[in-house]
Amino acid sequence: MDGRDGLGMAFSRRTFLKSAALGLGVVAGDRAGLARGGEVDDTSELVVGVWGGAIPKILKKTVIPDLEARYRCKVYVKEGTGGDRMAILRANPRNPAFDVVHLADGEAIPLIKEGILEEPSARVIPEFADLYPVAQISGYGQGLSDVGIAYSPQKVKERPTSWLDLWNPAYKGHVVIPSMKTTQGSSFLPALAKVLTGDQRNVEAAKRKLLELKPSILAYHRGTSHALTMLEQGDAWISVTIGAYVYQARDKGQPVDFVRPKEGSFSLIWFIDIARHTRHRTLAREYVRLALQAKAQRAFAEEMYLGPSNRKIALSGKVAELAVYGQQEIDRLINLDWMFIEGQRPSWIQWWNQHMV
Amino acid sequence: MAGSIAERVYHLKRSRWSVLAGVLPILSVYVALLVIPMLLLGQFSLYRKLTGEMGQVVLIREVSLANYAKFLASPFYFRILKDTLVMALTVTGLCVLLGYPVAFSLSRARRWKGILYLLVLAPFFVSVVIRTYGWMVILGHNGLVNWLLLASGLVTAPVPLIYNYTGILIGVTHIMLPYMVITLEAVLRKIDRSLIEAAQGLGANPWQAFSRVIFPLSLPGLVAGSLLVFALSVSIFTTPSLMGGGRIHLMSTIIYEETMGQVNWPSGAMLAWVLLVTTLAVLGLSQLAARRFEWRR
């Protein structure tokens, strides 16, 4: 991040400041490979960064106890948002506060390019080769899910079928869509572009359509649990959010249902990434491997309706029907170009702040 | 009186040193954890951020005022700054209106004082997030308030009380009220009750005794409480971000978004400095105004 990162070898601090362009760790990352030889690999502890809720609960029943037993180590779980994790890693890439982070969709792509997270590879994680291609893009895909329409059957009498049903004037003041700063939100825009024009890059059309939806909006949600809370309280009637979480809520008795619109729901893939400069590399890799193996994959499917990312895992029954399961079903989703999204996201957020808020 | 000038100077110096020794621990904490980080933030606000093709963050460590120029040229940022200041001022006003009667009765209370104090402080016992979720339940379309309004026939359709500006005002006022009440009560309690008797003895009715004697004497508390409430509400984050439903931007929420959402640390740092300077300016001006007011009297 500054002259201390070993850049002094090539540049003096001053020419460096003058020549100036520097990623938060991009250049430093390239040098890191050289330093690998003398790297520390401590197997006494591992710090994992993940969201709150169901995911850490299942990890604490599967991956974590197995890893702790095998290595007699201690795994620390720090819960927070993906944005928090990314900011914390960027603040100190050479001395990462997390060894392993859970991120969604393409969130990890910029950090991999910046040299903060490791490029995924079957060389270090053999299970990587067994993952569906969509789960190989920005780390080690750990579970598959999709975003469609969640609604309250008490308020919305006719089951929605299309994304365009969100624009139904009957729902005015009760529509909740994801905020642009969430991964769901930054995927919704290109997904809508695809629905409207057939081209996910034609976001201008989607922006115009979203502006038409603005008068119908109750609030923008910051994640599925936020959307579900508003649906439960009756303020929200219809929302755009993750199917897997809606099914969990329905199982717990909340009157809520989920629809995959006829134009296709859009994918939301859950990834795990390893910090490039972790000091606990063996544990980090083993953690990822355990998460991609049958025990954890099944637990995530059965308890959370996350489709397995590992092609070798077979499901049956209700879980197979509701989760995003198998290549056929993946192909039916609107699969988004996360490289494109990550490059555009900052400008979309800016647009959002100025026009949708 | 014993002592040469040298001795007196020595004593003066020693007392200054003892004052310094007293404030040194807290001062060093302030410098280490507030002043230095704010200066670093100021340095960051002079840099720029670019976005790579795949969202890589590229920091340009060249000193320029580009971020500040962006702020000055943007009606969008100005509107947010204005909304933030108006919100903080409105909350301060509401806290004065709601807090003064409470503080006054509290300062006069004898038997139930402990319990009343506890009630005023009660909001502090629950975390901000939980309190805010409580408001979501009470203020929602199917919440208690709308149910009462509908049942009483005052309205025919639920009133939107949350996920908008009203929601933010209610939530923030609730959180700030204890600061106002406690500050005011401390001043009101110290006002000698015999002053009221004296005023009444001189023919003042209760209202006159209050408006001409008590109220002016309570002004320092009112000013202190207002400054405290204003300074805290101008930068409050959790409640507006939850109660605003992501539809209202204030300085704190936009700083968070630029820093975390867009990973634009320089721009976030710039906004933090703008907020700091504006807040200090408002506080400074009100101090000046308060001093003027005192001279006139």
Describe this structure in words.
The complex is a heterodimer of chains A (357) and B (297). Chain A is an alpha/beta fold. Chain A folds into 2 domains: 206 residues, Periplasmic binding protein-like II (D-Maltodextrin-Binding Protein, domain 2, 3-Layer(aba) Sandwich), CATH 3.40.190.10; 141 residues, 3-Layer(aba) Sandwich (D-Maltodextrin-Binding Protein, domain 2). Chain A is 41% helix and 17% strand. Chain A contains 15 helices and 11 strands. In chain A, strands 2, 3, 4, 5, 6, 7, 8, 9, 10 and 11 form a 10-stranded mixed β-sheet that branches. Chain A is globular. The two termini of chain A are 34 Å apart. Chain B is mainly alpha-helical and 297 residues long. Chain B has one domain: MetI-like (MetI-like fold, Orthogonal Bundle). Chain B is 75% helix and 3% strand. Chain B has 12 helices and 2 strands. Chain B has a two-stranded antiparallel sheet with strand order 1-2. In chain B, strand 1 and strand 2 form a beta hairpin. Chain B is flat. The model of chain B has no long low-confidence stretch (mean pLDDT 90). At the A-B interface, strand 1, helix 5, helix 6, strand 7 and helix 15 of A face strand 2, helix 5 and helix 11 of B.
